[in-house]
Design a protein that fits this description.
β21 and β22 form a beta hairpin. The protein is built from 27 helices and 30 strands. The chain is elongated. It folds into 6 domains: about 35 residues, no CATH class; about 90 residues, Alpha-Beta Plaits; about 230 residues, no CATH class; about 90 residues, Calcium-transporting ATPase, cytoplasmic transduction domain A (Distorted Sandwich), CATH 2.70.150.10; about 150 residues, HAD superfamily/HAD-like (Rossmann fold, 3-Layer(aba) Sandwich); about 110 residues, 3-Layer(aba) Sandwich (Calcium-transporting ATPase, cytoplasmic domain N), CATH 3.40.1110.10. The two termini are about 35 Å apart. α16 runs parallel beside α27. This is ATPase. Keywords: Cell membrane, Ion transport, Magnesium, Membrane, Metal-binding, Phosphoprotein, Translocase, Transmembrane, Transmembrane helix, Transport.
Length: about 800
């Protein structure tokens, strides 16, 4: 059984570092452990076992541009009198120990004054003195602890969710009115013939009227907008009968208070709207920190390094970059604009745009598109298009890549359309009947029908059920955008998987050697030679070869861009690279590194994608769905996929973003309900076009395209459980509809017969809401525990 790193908890397959009687997977984890112990923060490991974040081994501490005045001003929250406040977004914050450590930064670094974490938004605000520590040093400090901040155009704009804030204010107003309304209405119910109360009852009723008026015309305003929006689109949605019930209850209450017929139902009205807003808030607050609607700003860096013809470097805002400027791009950095390579040897990974996992070699004079990632030496590029004209931005802004939703086609609104007409019909018939018998009682009957039939329980069932389901799914790293997505998930009958990065591991490759057995002497020499190359395949091969990391001096090293490299090690000359470079014939659709020694071919290392674990069982569980595979790669792995997915409907390779989008459209034209799973910008159009777009994210730091669901990559083998739970959620909602309708049938029956006073109707109506909320809470917990471990 593989050992686990004491700091980060990851399994250690190869090299182990023993320090202080503990095992670590890398020097980074050991360093963080030492830092915490030096500063007496070892309780970090007691708060949450294996909770540390492994520091990245990439050269990711390039934050010097943050000290540029223009960038500094754009990033910080406050800077005056030498004191600076900055808020960094840190997606890897995930537990109590993360919060504890990040709020203890001042203990580790006395140049930091204080730090405060917002767990919901995954941010940390840090206060520091400019004359003691630079902003770039703060960012590097966090990175070295494993909490690398994400800094891009999107985070720099510091968008706030105003809608949630407005909803919370409306909820607070309704809660205040409900609590005080109950207080002022209580004497009315228990006072009897008390003289003191009767002398003040009109004052109490005026106060209740004012409280209810604030709730009706402010807190409930979203219901009026929704009802009007539905009517404009010729649809009777659930909010239409709710609005009707609100005004009837409000109007009846005013009538009773003015005529001294009774106290009215102001307290009941405030209570109903409070619970309805509570359900809406519960639903909307679920994972509101996740960004489902992404644009290119969350992908682009905030600043770039500009280089003049004398070689002088200057950090400038990306928005200030102009055509003709020269910029510097380092290893593992994103190309921000379409440009021409001037200096350096490019090794560009375009998988984020095209889906093709191969790396493209570039030489001076070649064009490089925005969105590619450089692997290797520093490049100098000349800008040929501005940011808003680059290929990546144009691809993102295509109309075909945008999804427009009305939210009017929900199950609740479908039922409410018939519900409203039925209730209005019953009310009309009952009103005509009682007007011929007892005109005064007719008003009582009509009021009782409309009050008791207000579909508040109907409106509560979906938000509370889906809110619980969203919370449970989120705990299992399946983050759903809204309730409409759950309904659409339940209707899905076709699944489309992107291959690279979705059903394959992003950071794992299956390497096989074909050729004569290589002796350890040669393996050590080859590994020494591999260490001199920045090519991704060379790096993977270097990690794959399991011999001691002894480094031997290289003589006559020469690298030919796009072909390979050669050098003399301990008297032998080795060539590593393409088939033609070593004098061999390449096999079609094969990714391989060929090796020769002293002109004699030794063998080749073949690279194949490493598929995620337990996929065979997943596809067996998904046998009732039509399954399709799309890939930007070639078809070399088609036989593997056919064996992995025996029931596969269709596979398409060499697909660009437009091809994927068109394929989704063709399925929908056949009447299929499609869920698309993808991980990169090349999947963005297909994700938007599909009925449900599921973005896969292995690393919470990584960019995810606009989507309906964000799903952790390790949870893909459990996709069938998420789909089943979505179907169960619909069943629960339907059952709560039945409960609500039963209440309405009984209540309306008594109201029509004239045996229900409006006061009893006002009590009967919230009782149905309480029943629905209780039922949906218990049933969602029971159904969820069937698939996942659920804590109460």
């Amino acid at each position: 059984m593989a050992e686990q790193c004491f700091h980060c908890g990851q399994k250690i397959d190869k090299e182990q570092i023993l320090f202080d009687d503990k095992i670590f997977c890398c020097n980074g984890c050991q360093s963080v452990y030492e830092i915490l112990n030096v500063h007496n923060l070892e309780n970090f490991y007691n708060i949450n076992k294996n909770s540390g974040i492994r520091p990245s081994n990439e050269n990711n501490a390039q934050f010097d541009y943050l000290d540029t005045p223009e960038v500094f001003t754009k990033v910080v929250d406050f800077s005056e009198g030498g004191t600076t406040l900055v808020t960094f977004k840190i997606p890897v914050i995930h537990c109590s120990s993360c919060i504890w450590l990040l709020e203890s930064l001042h203990t580790i670094n006395n140049k930091i004054k204080y730090s405060q974490v917002n767990f919901t938004r995954k941010t940390v605000q840090i206060s520091f003195k400019e004359d003691e520590i630079k902003l770039s040093e703060v960012a590097k400090f966090l990175t070295n602890l494993g909490y690398k901040p994400v800094i891009n155009l999107e985070t720099a704009e510091k968008k706030q969710d105003k809608l949630d804030k407005s909803l919370l204010i409306k909820l607070a107003v309704a809660g205040f009115a409900f609590g005080n309304g109950m207080f002022f209405s209580f004497p009315e119910y228990v006072s009897g013939d008390d003289v003191w109360f009767h002398s003040f009852k009109h004052l109490f009723r005026i106060i209740l009227f004012l409280l209810a008026t604030a709730v009706v015309f402010y807190s409930a305003s979203d219901y009026y907008k929704s009802a009007w929006y539905g009517l404009k689109n010729k649809i009777i949605n659930i909010d239409v009968p709710i609005v009707l019930g609100i005004f009837v209850l409000y109007g009846r209450s005013i009538y009773e208070a003015v005529t001294d017929y009774g106290p009215g139902y102001f307290d009941t009205l405030c209570g109903l709207l409070f619970f309805m807003l509570l359900g809406k808030t519960f639903q909307k607050r679920t994972y509101n920190s996740l960004s489902y609607d992404r644009d290119y700003k969350s992908f682009y860096p905030i600043a770039v390094t500009k280089v003049d013809f004398d070689g002088k470097q200057e950090n400038i805002l990306l928005s200030d970059l102009a055509v003709g400027d020269r910029i510097m791009v380092r290893n593992q950095e994103i190309i921000p604009v379409d440009s021409i390579l001037i200096k350096g040897e490019g090794n560009i990974d375009n998988s984020f745009i095209t889906g093709e996992s191969a790396h493209i070699s570039k030489k001076p004079g070649d064009k490089i598109f925005a969105g590619g990632k450089q692997s290797g030496s520093v490049l100098e590029l000349e800008v040929i298009k501005s940011v808003d004209q680059s290929y990546l931005t144009q691809l993102w802004n295509k109309e075909a890549f945008k999804k427009f939703e009305t939210g009017l086609d929900t199950m609740t609104n479908t039922i409410s359309k018939y519900f409203t007409f039925i209730i209005l019909g019953i009310t009309l018939v009952a009103g005509i009947y009682w007007s011929t018998i007892d005109f005064e009682k007719m008003f009582q009957v009509v009021s009782a029908i409309l009050i008791v039939a207000c579909p508040c329980a109907l409106a509560l069932s979906a938000p509370f059920t889906f809110g619980h389901i969203m919370r449970i799914l989120g705990r299992n790293k399946f983050y759903v955008k809204d309730t409409l997505t759950i309904e659409r998930l339940a209707k899905v009958d076709t699944l489309v998987f992107d291959k690279t990065g979705t059903i394959t591991e992003n950071k794992k490759t299956n390497i096989n050697f074909v050729g004569t057995e290589i002796e350890e002497f040669d393996l050590k020499n080859i590994k020494s030679l591999l260490k001199n190359s920045n090519h991704p395949l060379s790096k993977s091969l270097y990690d794959f070869i399991e011999v001691n990391d002894d480094y031997f001096e290289i003589e006559d090293f020469e690298e030919i861009s796009g072909k390979g490299y050669q050098g003399k090690v301990r008297g032998s000359t080795y060539k590593i690279g393409s088939a033609s470079f070593t004098g061999q014939e390449s096999q079609n659709m094969e990714t391989a590194v060929y090796i020769s020694k002293n002109g004699e071919f030794i063998g080749k290392f073949i690279f194949k994608n490493e598929y995620r674990n337990h996929l065979a069982q997943l596809f067996q569980n998904l046998k009732n769905y039509r399954i399709n595979i799309l890939s930007g790669d070639n078809s070399s792995e088609k036989p593997i996929l056919e064996k992995l997915i025996p029931t596969i409907s269709e596979m398409k390779f060499n697909q660009n973003p437009e091809n994927k989008l068109d394929f989704i459209k063709s399925l929908q034209d056949k009447g299929e309900k499609v869920a698309m799973l993808g991980d990169g910008l090349n999947d963005a159009g297909a994700l938007k076009q599909s009925n449900v777009g599921i973005a896969i994210a292995d690393d919470s730091n990584s960019f995810t395209p606009s989507s309906d669901v964000i799903m952790n990559g390790e949870k893909i083998p459990e996709l069938d459980k998420f789909l089943k739970l979505s179907k169960d959620a619909i069943k629960i909602v339907k059952f709560t509809f039945i409960i609500s309708l039963c209440y309405n049938v009984v209540g309306v029956g008594f109201a029509v017969s004239g045996h229900m006073h409006p006061l009893f109707a006002a009590i009967f109506m919230p009782l149905s809401s309480v029943t629905v909320v209780t039922f949906t809470t218990l049933s969602t917990w029971i159904r969820s525990s069937k698939y996942f471990k659920i804590s109460i």
